[in-house]
């Protein structure tokens, strides 16, 4: 039974797990399907050699917090491998170095995630004294898909008890009686989150931790940023001294030395902080690293306005302050009592970019409200939004606008007619008054004579 069968048993145990009130640590074997790079060596990172063969990595007795899924799980038996199986099997003891992400590696297959595992030779810059002549080092880089953890482990081969041990035909290393290459993990660097998304202006924490075998000391921690083909130093720590090259970047020396936590904090994120961050840990013998991809996001602000009310009405949807560039603008139209229907004849303006690096764009649409009027919605889809963002506007029907204009015209005409009528009434009243005054004056003169 290979790694696939062993993981199947684990998944069956996981699916039937019961909730437990108290969780306990349990030592289990973690089995990973890997590829071995037979040629070339490097000091960390994934190798690029095409000469790769299948291999099996068995991490022996790794402490894992039991969530009820480990009951009945048996240790991996090397003798279950078929004799004609071409796999190179590495057995790795973790007594000297912890594997904090072992649970994620253990349950990856059950969670529908893929594990990429690559093993290659690791060559020391300075070979330590009292090193067995046949000793060799390997580095294993493991990555769980879907935002899972990443682990880099440096393993040292163990001297076999038998002096006349059989050598592996290509590795030229002694094999155990079971035909495996026995190693011990002496150094590991891990990150819980190889990919992160943060909003513009927020504070980011980039996780990076390590563990070392007794007798090894961490001599330096370096954080570098790679983006669009250029690199820069962000933070550098050596024993007793830390130096931030990016303003506000912090690393806790106490946590670094006591808990193996080399996480970096970046406040007030700008678009210049986006990129691939390399956390590199150097010890007196080894060097390994993890890469954390940091993405900056800025949610769009949307404003929908009616450019003119006279037919044909034009709607303008302004979208501003968003990042990254990819953004979708769609329109829907909804009449009273009906359902929203997509509108496809909208147009987009040219893209605009602010000094801060965020983007803006506008979409315009000629409204056709119909006889009852219609509600138009501008929908924005962007990676920073959990769901599409919409802005709504109601456009009145042309008939209603004509009635309104006719009403104003009738009111104006009525007002003018009223003024004319009052004017005529006043003029008629003045004429009658003059006639009465003239009659009175004639009567007075007649009486006088």
TrEMBL record:
<keyword id="KW-0393">Immunoglobulin domain</keyword>
<keyword id="KW-1133">Transmembrane helix</keyword>
<feature type="domain" description="Ig-like">
    <location>
        <begin position="300"/>
        <end position="390"/>
    </location>
</feature>
<feature type="domain" description="Ig-like">
    <location>
        <begin position="177"/>
        <end position="293"/>
    </location>
</feature>
<keyword id="KW-0333">Golgi apparatus</keyword>
<dbReference type="GO" id="GO:0002502">
    <property type="term" value="P:peptide antigen assembly with MHC class I protein complex"/>
</dbReference>
<keyword id="KW-0256">Endoplasmic reticulum</keyword>
<protein>
    <recommendedName>
        <fullName>Tapasin-related protein</fullName>
    </recommendedName>
</protein>
<dbReference type="Pfam" id="PF07654">
    <property type="entry name" value="C1-set"/>
</dbReference>
<keyword id="KW-0732">Signal</keyword>
<feature type="signal peptide">
    <location>
        <begin position="1"/>
        <end position="17"/>
    </location>
</feature>
<dbReference type="GO" id="GO:0005886">
    <property type="term" value="C:plasma membrane"/>
</dbReference>
<dbReference type="InterPro" id="IPR013783">
    <property type="entry name" value="Ig-like_fold"/>
</dbReference>
<comment type="subunit">
    <text>Interacts with peptide-free HLA-A*02-B2M complexes or those loaded with low affinity peptides, likely facilitating peptide exchange onto higher affinity peptides. Interacts with MR1 in a ligand-independent way; this interaction may stabilize MR1 pool and facilitate ligand loading and dissociation.</text>
</comment>
<keyword id="KW-0492">Microsome</keyword>
<dbReference type="GO" id="GO:0002590">
    <property type="term" value="P:negative regulation of antigen processing and presentation of peptide antigen via MHC class I"/>
</dbReference>
<dbReference type="Pfam" id="PF07686">
    <property type="entry name" value="V-set"/>
</dbReference>
<feature type="transmembrane region" description="Helical">
    <location>
        <begin position="405"/>
        <end position="424"/>
    </location>
</feature>
<dbReference type="InterPro" id="IPR036179">
    <property type="entry name" value="Ig-like_dom_sf"/>
</dbReference>
<dbReference type="InterPro" id="IPR003599">
    <property type="entry name" value="Ig_sub"/>
</dbReference>
<dbReference type="InterPro" id="IPR007110">
    <property type="entry name" value="Ig-like_dom"/>
</dbReference>
<keyword id="KW-1015">Disulfide bond</keyword>
<keyword id="KW-0677">Repeat</keyword>
<keyword id="KW-0472">Membrane</keyword>
<dbReference type="GO" id="GO:0005789">
    <property type="term" value="C:endoplasmic reticulum membrane"/>
</dbReference>
<dbReference type="GO" id="GO:0000139">
    <property type="term" value="C:Golgi membrane"/>
</dbReference>
<keyword id="KW-1003">Cell membrane</keyword>
<dbReference type="InterPro" id="IPR003597">
    <property type="entry name" value="Ig_C1-set"/>
</dbReference>
<keyword id="KW-0391">Immunity</keyword>
<keyword id="KW-0812">Transmembrane</keyword>
<dbReference type="InterPro" id="IPR050380">
    <property type="entry name" value="Immune_Resp_Modulators"/>
</dbReference>
<dbReference type="GO" id="GO:0023024">
    <property type="term" value="F:MHC class I protein complex binding"/>
</dbReference>
<dbReference type="InterPro" id="IPR013106">
    <property type="entry name" value="Ig_V-set"/>
</dbReference>
């Amino acid at each position: 039974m290979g790694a696939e069968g062993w993981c199947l048993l684990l998944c069956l145990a996981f699916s039937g797990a019961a909730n437990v009130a108290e969780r306990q640590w349990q030592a289990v074997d973690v089995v990973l399907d890997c590829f071995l790079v037979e040629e070339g060596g490097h000091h960390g990172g994934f190798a690029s050699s095409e000469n790769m063969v299948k291999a099996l990595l068995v991490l022996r007795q790794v402490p894992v917090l039991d969530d009820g899924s480990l009951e009945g799980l048996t240790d991996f038996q090397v003798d279950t491998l078929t004799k004609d199986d071409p796999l190179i099997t590495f057995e790795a003891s973790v007594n000297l170095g912890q594997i904090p992400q072992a649970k994620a590696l253990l349950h990856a297959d059950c969670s529908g995630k893929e594990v990429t595992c690559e093993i290659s030779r690791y060559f020391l810059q300075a070979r330590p004294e009292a090193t067995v002549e046949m000793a060799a080092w390997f580095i294993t880089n493991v990555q769980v898909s879907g935002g899972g953890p990443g682990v880099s482990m440096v393993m040292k081969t163990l001297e076999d008890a038998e002096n006349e041990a059989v050598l592996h035909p290509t590795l030229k290393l002694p094999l155990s009686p079971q035909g495996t290459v026995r190693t011990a993990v002496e150094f590991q660097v891990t990150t819980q989150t190889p990919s992160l998304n943060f909003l513009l202006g927020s504070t980011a924490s980039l996780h990076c931790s390590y563990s070392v075998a007794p007798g090894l000391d961490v001599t330096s921690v370096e954080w570098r940023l790679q983006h669009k083909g250029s690199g820069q130093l962000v933070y550098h720590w050596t024993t007793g001294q830390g130096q931030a090259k990016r303003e506000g970047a912090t690393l806790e020396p106490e946590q670094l030395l006591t808990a193996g936590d080399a996480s970096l904090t970046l406040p007030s994120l700008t678009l210049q902080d986006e990129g691939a961050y390399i956390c590199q840990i150097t010890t007196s013998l080894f060097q390994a690293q993890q890469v954390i991809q940091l993405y900056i996001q800025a949610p769009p602000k949307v404003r929908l306005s009616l450019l003119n009310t006279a037919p044909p009405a034009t709607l303008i949807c302004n979208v501003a302050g968003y990042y990254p560039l990819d953004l979708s603008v769609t329109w829907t139209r909804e009449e009273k009592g009906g359902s929203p229907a997509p509108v496809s004849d909208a147009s987009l303006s040219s893209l605009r970019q602010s000094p801060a690096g965020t983007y803006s764009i506008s979409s315009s649409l000629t409204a056709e409200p119909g006889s009852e009027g219609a509600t138009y919605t501008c929908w924005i889809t962007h990676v920073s939004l959990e769901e599409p963002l919409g802005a709504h506007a109601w456009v009145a029907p042309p008939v209603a606008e004509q009635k309104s204009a006719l009403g104003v015209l009738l009111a104006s005409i009525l007002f003018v007619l009223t003024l004319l009528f009052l004017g005529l009434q006043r003029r008629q009243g003045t004429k009658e008054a003059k006639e009465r005054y003239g009659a009175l004056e004639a009567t007075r003169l007649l009486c006088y004579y």
